Amino acid sequence: MSVMEYPATQHQHFAVFPIAAFNDNYIWCIQPESSDQVWVVDPGDAAPVIAALTQKKLRLAGILITHHHRDHTGGIDALLRHFGKQTPVYGPDNTAIHGISHPLTKQGDYRLTAGHTTLSLQLYAVPGHTLDHIAYLIDDALFCGDTLFCAGCGRLFEGSAEQLYQSLQKIAQLPQDTKIYPAHEYTLSNLKFAAMAEPDNQALASFTEQAKQLRQQQRPTLPSSVARELAINPFLHCDDARLAPILSQHWQTAADSAVTRLKLLRQWKDNC
Ligand SMILES: [Zn+2]
Questions:
Q1: Strand order in 9-10's β-sheet?
Q2: Is 71 annotated as contributing to ligand binding?
């Protein structure tokens, strides 16, 4: 099986490249400098991972999981069968996820080792989309699963708008040049909605042109960055009042707090 090759993004100590899965998932691979071993994030499907790593002559060091949804975890068992049951699987402290060997119970600094690779990372609890959702900050690369997308955010399946608001704040407060690696290519549809919410946002309009070109060339629109998301993502604009008039008009109700604006914006997108 030959797989579509996407360019890697270079960070100081590692490179990151995506493996496409299902219709619009990216399984991000983290390849430490001068190593033939990689870590994969959220392998919902094992087959494309096995195909890509075989083609690139890479081995699997370890697996990182952000939350329990099947399209992020469904490949764990088959990857362990293929690459060996000793492969460490780090993820939320949620017994519902089959195959996690190292549950990560609290936020903070971790040093993960597997094979001859080490990852130093900061773990963030980011509940909202699900209650068990975590995000991994490795140097200046954030792997945030379904919490924040380019120009959008994850649906509220389990958490409250207040929880999602706090989670998005954690991401918004990271250094502006932090690269953001969400698990889905939802950018064009998110941009379409974002333009309804913020019709006068020039940064949003110009990035939309860029994103359309990338997708025409079948290239990922990701990674994004904190700076870009602060400029174009309406879900990160709930703190200021710019969204209040359009939300009040749409829902015929007051949109007078940040959490209310996030909740109304999310419901609007859910019904689009
Ligand atoms: Zn999900």
A1: 9-10, 14-21, 25-32, 37-41, 59-64, 89-92, 102-104
A2: yes
